[in-house]
Design goal:
about 300 residues; mainly alpha; 2 domains; 13 helices; disordered N terminus
Length: about 300
């Protein structure tokens, strides 16, 4: 299980550690997630901003925005769940109305009670971050579960995160991994990254470098910067893949471009083991990858 730490002396003096890290969100209070291995890189941390229904947006009080809000309110008052959700979202973001999180929570709740999965997720977010309601992890977990049971990937990811940290739910690595997998299989790149991390560290699952690489790669190829760092490390160490310094350098460089902590350290240590020709090949691969993403 232990990585070949002697490849990069000083990069890590211990076996794979699993740290508690913060997932950046658009709200004040981060959702803490356990499941990101240190990967042997000092300062490795999360760099995966989450989608959130509590996101801040510029207020829109134009005539069009106001008319839209009035139309949505009429439908919401008639009990239409979709309209109730959208009215809640308008209050959360200040679109067409003055921003008011308590009103957002009220409308999300009405829609959530009718089974609207996105409203359930959004209300869970408000409880998790204490926006418009008293912060309550157990209540957040309740609403996340309702949405997760309907197959909403982000809710599945967030529920897995709560199992990982033990916030609002009994701490359970196996349940965390199960929910991460469900979300990952639906294409949630954050869940793919964390599922790769739990396989790399053997948290709630049998340690499996091949599976770690698979899930890191799925997210990395979609532009997930932390997963790019994780994949780069696996290439550097030859864990789950043949050791490949060119690939390690390229993936680490992509993470560096996004400001991920620890990425520059990995890239520099890898470069020390490479020839100039290999570094040039890695830089070309980096440029090609970025160009392909921009097309």
């Amino acid at each position: 299980m232990a990585g070949n730490w002697q490849v990069f002396p000083g990069l890590s003096d211990h076996d794979l550690l699993v740290n508690s890290v913060a997932v950046e969100t658009n709200a004040d209070r981060p959702a803490r997630v356990i499941g990101y291995p240190d990967l042997g890189m000092p300062g490795a941390g999360s760099h995966c901003p989450r989608r959130s229904q509590v996101a801040e947006s510029p207020n829109d009080h134009s005539a069009v925005g106001t008319r839209l809000a009035q139309d949505v309110r009429r439908a919401a008052d008639q009990g239409e769940a979709i309209a109730q959700f959208h009215l809640g979202l308008m209050y959360a973001t200040g679109q067409g109305v003055s921003q008011h999180y308590a009103e957002a929570a009220r409308w999300y709740r009405l829609a959530g009670h009718q089974g609207h999965a996105e409203a359930q997720l959004a209300l869970g977010n408000l409880y998790a971050h204490g926006r418009g309601v008293t912060s309550d992890d157990e209540e957040a977990a309740h609403w996340y579960r309702l949405a997760a049971d309907q197959g909403l990937a982000e809710a599945q990811f967030r529920l897995g995160s709560m199992y990982a940290t033990g916030e609002g739910l009994p701490q359970n690595d196996s349940e965390a991994a199960r929910w991460y997998r469900l979300a990952a299989e639906r294409g949630d790149t954050d869940a793919q990254f964390y599922l790769g991390a739990v396989y790399a560290g053997g948290l709630g699952v049998a340690q499996d470098d091949d599976s770690a690489v698979r899930w890191f790669r799925n997210a990395a190829e979609e532009g997930h910067a932390d997963a790019q760092l994780g994949l780069g490390f696996m290439y550097a160490e030859g864990r789950g893949v043949s050791q490949d310094f060119v690939a390690a350098h390229m993936w680490a460089s992509l993470a560096v471009a996004e400001g991920v902590k620890g990425a520059r350290t990995l890239r520099d240590r890898v470069a020390e083991r490479m020839s100039r020709r290999q570094v040039a090949a890695a830089e070309r691969a980096y440029d090609d990858w970025r160009a392909a993403r921009e097309r």
